Amino acid sequence: MATTGLLAHVLVAKYADHLALYLLKAIFGRASVKLARSMLAEWVGTCGVHLQPLVDTLRQTIPVHRVVHADETPVQILQLGTKKPHRACLWTYAPGAFESLKAVIYDFTESRAGEHARAFLGDWQGSLLCDDDSGYKASFIHGITEIGSWRMRGESSSSCMPRANWPSRLCIISVSSLSRRLNTLSALFADDFRSDGRAKECGRRQFLGGWIAVGGLICRSNDTKPT
């Protein structure tokens, strides 16, 4: 019979250290412990069932916080009886960095439709930190405040510059969009601007007038030709 410590080790190795079960089998084998991969898979599945109440509690608790981080990752799945895989989605939600709860919950859905994000968030009306994925847009109409990701994106995919000619992740965004984002940043970091003696307007002009590096992304207003 597996002990709770062994089960915890398997789960942490698989989900936190990203070790596949066949690798875990080999690691245990080096210690002369023979464990079938089917047995490891059964342990993982059984633990998932027993941990479901914790997942349900987190699902109810995370949207209570004032700030929530969200992200979505497409995944290919193959359903029984079909030969062609289709794209599902793994949504990730976590409280803000300054919230007391330190947890992440994953919500698997059969598609990337925005209705799944709205279903998870329910009637919550806090501040959502996310990227520019269209799935979140309807939520902002229903009272949720958008906090743009540091990895700012262009207004559309057609505005992205060819990677062959420009630095990695280079895109062009409109002046109006950039101005809105900078106004938000100025409000968030007003104290920082004042503390080091720089005027907020000066900072805005510096940002608007040239290249901007935010989280590794380089942006420039689209009414100025790159040199």
SSE arrangement:
Elements (H helix, E strand, L loop, with lengths): L3 H13 L4 H10 L6 H14 L1 H10 L5 E11 L8 E10 L9 E5 L4 H8 L5 E4 L6 H5 L3 E4 L21 E4 L1 H14 L1 H6 L4 H10 L2 E3 L2 E5 L6
Parallel strand pairs: 1-4, 4-5, 6-8
Antiparallel strand pairs: 1-2, 2-3, 7-8
Helix pairs in contact: 7-9
Summarize the structure.
The longest helix is centred in the N-terminal third of the chain and has 14 residues, at 37-50.
Number of strands: 8
What coarse outline follows from CA principal-axis ratios? elongated
Count of separate DSSP helical elements: 9
Q: Give the rounded overall mean pLDDT.
A: 75
Relative helix content: 25-40%
Q: Write the element-wise H/E pattern from the N-terminal end onward.
A: HHHHEEEHEHEEHHHEE
Pairing-aware structural class of the strands and helices?
Answer: alpha/beta
List low-confidence stretches.
Answer: 152-173, 197-227
Number of domains: 3
Fold and architecture overview:
The structure is a single chain. By secondary structure, this protein is α/β, with parallel strands linked by helices. The chain folds into three domains: about 5-50; about 60-150, no CATH class; about 155-220, no CATH class. The chain is about 40% helix and about 20% strand. It is built from nine helices and eight strands. A five-stranded mixed β-sheet has the order 3-2-1-4-5. A three-stranded mixed β-sheet has the order 6-8-7. Helix 7 runs antiparallel to helix 9 (about 200-210). Mean pLDDT is about 75; it is low at about 150-175 and about 195-225.
